[in-house]
Amino acid sequence: MKHILGVSAGYHDAAVSVVREDGEIVFAGHSERYSKIKNDPKLSIELVDAAFNFKIDTIAYYERPWMHNLQQLISREYNFSSLTVHDTLRQHLGADRIKGRTLTAFPHHLSHAAAGFQTSPFREAAVVVIDAIGELDTISIYQASYNKDNQAQYEKVWGQRYPHSIGLFYSALTQRVGLKPQEEEYITMGMAAYGDQSLIHDMGEYAVADYFNAEFYENFHIGFDPDKFVGEDNNNIAAAGQWITERLIQDIMCKAAHLTRSDNLVYMGGVALNCLANQYLGRYFNDIWIMPNPGDAGSSLGAAALAHGRPLRWAGPYLGHIITGDYPVDSALECLLRDRICGVANGPAEFGPRALGNRSLLADPRGSDIKDRVNDIKQRQRFRPFAPVILEEYASEYFDLPGGFGSSPYMQSVARCLAPDLYPAICHVDGTSRVQTVPYDSPSGIRALLEAWYAATGCPMLLNTSLNIRGEPMVNDRADADRFENEYGVRVVS
Ligand SMILES: [Fe+2]
Prior knowledge:
- The structure is a single chain.
- By secondary structure, the protein is α/β, with parallel strands linked by helices.
- Helix content is 32%, strand content 24%.
- The chain contains 17 helices and 23 strands.
- The protein has helices spanning 32-35, 45-51, 65-74, 85-93, 95-98, 108-117, 166-176, 185-192, 200-207, 234-260, 275-278, 299-308, 329-339, 370-378, 395-398, 446-457, 478-488; strands at residues 3-8, 15-20, 25-30, 56-61, 102-105, 124-134, 137-146, 152-161, 208-210, 215-216, 264-268, 287-289, 318-323, 341-345, 347-350, 359-363, 387-391, 399-400, 414-417, 432-434, 436-438, 461-466, 492-493.
- The strands form six sheets. A six-stranded mixed sheet has the order 21-17-22-16-14-23. Strands 3-2-1-4-5 form a five-stranded mixed sheet, with helices on both faces. Strands 8-7-6-11-12 form a five-stranded mixed sheet, sandwiched between helices.
- Strand 2 (15-20) and strand 3 form a beta hairpin.
- Helix 6 packs across helix 12, helix 7 (166-176) runs antiparallel to helix 10 (234-260) and helix 13 packs across helix 16.
- The chain is globular, with a radius of gyration of 22 Å.
- It binds fe (ii) ion.
- The site of fe (ii) ion has 6 residues, from helix 6 and strand 6.
- Fe (ii) ion (FE2) is lined by residues 108, 112, 131, 134, 269, 296.
């Protein structure tokens, strides 16, 4: 059968996705997992080779190169690339790979939208895309549906453009609190819980001209004014920026609900990873779908979806490199009961930034010492919380899940932790947890491991964090898992 290769490359976190002509997503992976360079903007040869194991007929690029160059000119980044799709794909894949194949490119925000809508369970939806900048677009609202021929249709009903950008504001905030923009936004989000509300008013006055249209006084592409908030506590700056971001997002969601009159939300773009803000989405929509790789890497799947035109079959985010063999339930359980910490590397790697059971460092969440032990292994800031992974049917006993998501299989929203004193390792200082719920039909063996753990201990959840060596991307293959074992002395079972 024929296959479509979707490509996202050249800026940050290069990725590819392969869609079969019947709509099956047969492979999707991040370049960084192969090259070991975090957020690698270039396509790794190994990743491309893995994609070309399938019979590729069409190659779809996630944005239009000529528009990318225009954006670079206007935003004064001057990171120019080739102007044509042909030259761009030749540069990323090599002349031999593109020869004789149909080449195409789609608008940046439309690729985000399609990665969401065409993997969603919906026949119609409001699609909201919020990122930093893509071809000068920063926010897009689409009305999406399928026509009688099952072809996806997207009508853009509202948009915001550079320099007004929630994503750029949050990246500037991340830089202002001493972290790496476009990479460590999730740490800014964690810091916000430690801050107070003292700077919200001043930051709002400084930054936001119009909440409902997400218009800013400043171009945050060049960062915060260095004379602002001098001497203020970074946690308070993060808290104010997070609060403002949440209000901006809520106003956009309110607008999207009003303009589309849809009860279904598909939410995409890098800002959709802000799981603190996502707890409020249920105020505006009954049902919510965020494809678990909503950033530009996930747009490789969006470009392939647009070339395909029809719905894709979404079976889960386990789409990458496969470590073969049955999920090691017995050995992982034995390891957890003995050591309380165990790595698992099995099956297809997760497509997206979060470890969801196939490349996970797991631990017993009970008691007060485990957080420090895992933090010591991960060598990361002590304030950062760990996430729980729990049997879905027990989630409501331990967490108050927000409306709109139903369950939380991809850790996309925070939930209120109902027993923070019993499980301090997986409850943040603000009393929330980034919960992964695991349903009966999960394609990951983490379900069977959780069942075995529950049978042995009476506790239906584990602490779950990504399996990676400090400074490196997530473990991809067994050789990476062996390096992890040697580096940290923690067993990794496959
Ligand atoms: Fe984007």
